[in-house]
Amino acid sequence: MILCRILGPVSVEVDGVVVDLGGAVARRLLAALATGMGAAVGHSVLADLVWGDESPRDATKSVRVAVHRLRTALGPRGAAWIVSAPGGYRLAVGPAGTDHGLFTERVTAGLQALAAGDAAAAIGSLESALALWRGRPWPEFDEMAAVSAARARLLELYEVGFEELQAARLECGDATAAVVALSATITEAPYRERRWELLALALYRSGRQAQALAELRRVRDLLVDELGIEPGPALRELADRMLAHDPRLMIVPDSGPAELSRGAGQPYAPRASSAAPTRPMTAASRSARSVRAAGRAGSGGTAPVSRLERPLSTFIGRRAELDLLHELRTANRLVTVVGPAGVGKTRLVIEYAAERPDTWPVPLADSRSAADIAPSIAAALGIPSVIGDPMTTLRNALRDQPGLLILDNCEHLVDDLPAIVRDLLAHTAGVHILTTSRRPLGIAGERVIPLHPLTIDASDGRAGPAVELLYERVSAGRADWRATPDDEWAAHAICRALDGLPLAIELAAARERVLGLSGIATLLPERTDVLAPTPHGSLSPHDSLTSAIAWSVEQLDTADRALLLRLWPFGGGFTWQAAESVWRDGDGAVLARLSTLVDRSVVIADVTNGSARYRMLETIRRYCRDNDPDPAASQQAHAQWVRRLMREQAGLLSRSHSADAAEVLATEIGNIRIGFQHDLAHHPREALRSAGALAAVSMTVGTLREATRGIQAALTACSDAALIDRVEATIALSTAELHAGNHTAALRSAESAIELLDGTNPEHELLLLRACSSRCNALIQLNEVAAFRLAHERFRVATESPNAPESMRVNAKLGAAMLQLYDGQIDSAVQNILACRETVTEYGNLRARGRIETVLAWTLLGQVSPDPASVREALGYLTSAITIFERQPHGAEMLVCLDAGVCALICLGRKDIAQRLHAAVLAHAARIGTDPCRYLRSIGQQLASRKVDGLADAHPPGPAPSWSAMVELFTSTVADLVKP
């Protein structure tokens, strides 16, 4: 058996199996042939239907090619369907071979059976006919003239078949089924009077006589308001009989035709709808009519009344969100407020809607399935009980009512709720829906407002709304309470630990009388039980913050939850690649799972910098830590990732892409600290192997205090480690101590490394060169000239080895230049330093060039009486070095460079700017733990007293500028000084 279907998307079935037609052209061609209803369709018409405005130049040839391909796809049996005809082709199938043919036959048979009084047979025929209907005929074509007539005939036949099926059900006594079917479709064709007539009679026979009369009044208002006409005689007669309580309306005969709104004894004849055209009501007419309907008794609707009561506590810090909510709700019918547990979603919508009388609040936290949703909404609408389909009841109740339906706490119903929301919005004109959830509903047209935690610090430096909320809630419990300086520190610490979550802050405030804010701040990082239970009358459906978070996590599927619990060791956010590297149960779907976690508001995504970075709120991190089935494995995986990252990126810091590496390290500094501390505690040998990388990271983006303490701790914990590892770490410690200004400690570490090494062992050669270079640098900073001469000579000889790297030879030449400076041979020293600069430029070591240019500037400035030309030359070197250190970041060297700039500006009389620059240099040096003035005590000794005198004469500086502002202050000043 072969069947061609066009009631809905075109398809062909051969013996019940759908045939693959091979593409859009073939499907449209088959649909076009079906428009002929067995008659021939011309080549030009076929071409227009198949290709539209892009119809090929040779339509006949193109149609022939398409027909050949379609015949091939249909196979031998189906190919015989397509028959050539004069000027075109026709589909040679009888009514039994097409769904529209079968549909027409069955609807006709059903109407004939109904007219003959056989309602049961009519139901069978009409139901089987409507079962063939999969949608609008020929959806492949828009309103094209070639199909409009045939499509209109089928659509009208469908409407008549549907209506007369309900009439047949009424004859058989099944009024409930008729009510359900008619209520669901009455608004789709509001001008078909036959449909209203059947619905009213079905309601009347279901015992809902008042509602039946209300529906008749509603259709009268509709026709009068929209079209300016009264209902037809059938509706008017039915209304009169209902008002007169005509008992014959309740009669369901055993046989013979039913008395459907006709007088007794009148024969039944199926009829089409009234002459009023079928078209949808406009939004404006619906809105105008709904205002009148809201106050009419017996309309089946419910006038919206606000049942929202504001909590007694003060609402703090959400003015911008309220304004945005009002803006979106005014312009859109569906708005969802999403955010993590405890962020205040419910409180926000209550504050928004409390003053609005047109609201229906529906709490859904206790609803467990789709079956609970509609009854919950009905209860909020004031409908005490629901008979039949609850969605039909809701549509009828809300159809003519403007108002705001608030669906609160929807996250666990997101799989079931969208269908209900779409249905309500489709069948009501004046209803807007506002939902709160931890994830969006995912409905087309939904506008989502992400609700973020309260900010802790305001933009003007004062306490932000999170701290303000904490103070207000503490004051509510203790009217005489006033914040002390210690309380201010503790309040900020508490709000940071709680991520600015309003619920968490309120629960912390409730403990102030027991622990004080300082006590809470001390205990909170490790103990969530510091927080009080949720108080009576709270808007939260959960009894504690932990249970609120658990509610979010429990909604996740197994794999998503496993990933979430694995991510807690990340303390400074993470990329999806980092998440993938630590997920031992990974299935290659990390991005998809992270997307789910972000949608569920348990992970936050930041895409402001062009690439996604993810983080967890600290409260959720602690929950995941406490519920991770294997926290040690999670920490170990995180530490392994940190090791790889730190060692890889540190190795790039002296190369062309060092700026990218520095940015990565700066972003991940929080994770680096966590991972290194974990290794110190559990795998000290791994920490020891990371010592060199740690020193490089700290000089670039971290703090040198962290590096020195960390390397010292690793060396202490690994006294029996391999010699090479200990020497590498000791040299790294010497380098870190040198930049921190601890020159004696740097010298001691360098000499310790030299003592451990064997000069005759080729494997130790490079390490020995690095240790000797570090010793020379320490001796220079200590001004131990005699010891430096001896150490430098040993180092110089060692660099003559063919295995010595070029960087070590450059260091030896710089050392020779330093000796020339000590001996007063300034010109020779400068020439040697310039030669070193040329060498490192040739092999592309920009960082080395920046350091050499800094040395050159200090050399020029360190003369007894530097002339303005020398100072300007020094400024040129400093500007070049700063450019390098911006491209290949090195915070410690940058500050040394800027300190030289301070001296240069003093020499040129720009003392006020020098003072401001000096204050910034010292502030940032203190932050990262470096000594920016160390060159002043070696090659710049002549400048020391001049610098002190110059700064003493300047005006006191204001607040220290930021790092970028500090660099801009220097470079812009230099640009002004060197203008021609």
UniProtKB/TrEMBL annotation:
SMART domains listed in its UniProt record: BTAD, Trans_reg_C
DNA-binding segment(s): 1-93
Pfam families per record: AAA_22, BTAD, HTH_77, Trans_reg_C
Annotated stretches, region: Disordered: 255-305
Domain of life: Bacteria
Keyword DNA-binding on entry: yes
Compositionally skewed regions (Low complexity) per UniProt: 267-296
Domain OmpR/PhoB-type, chain residue ranges per copy: 1-93
GO molecular function: ATP hydrolysis activity; DNA binding
DNA-binding recorded as keyword: yes
PROSITE patterns recorded: OMPR_PHOB
GO BP terms: phosphorelay signal transduction system; regulation of DNA-templated transcription
Family to which the UniProt record says this protein belongs: Belongs to the AfsR/DnrI/RedD regulatory family.
Protein name: Putative ATPase
Protein's organism: Nocardia tenerifensis
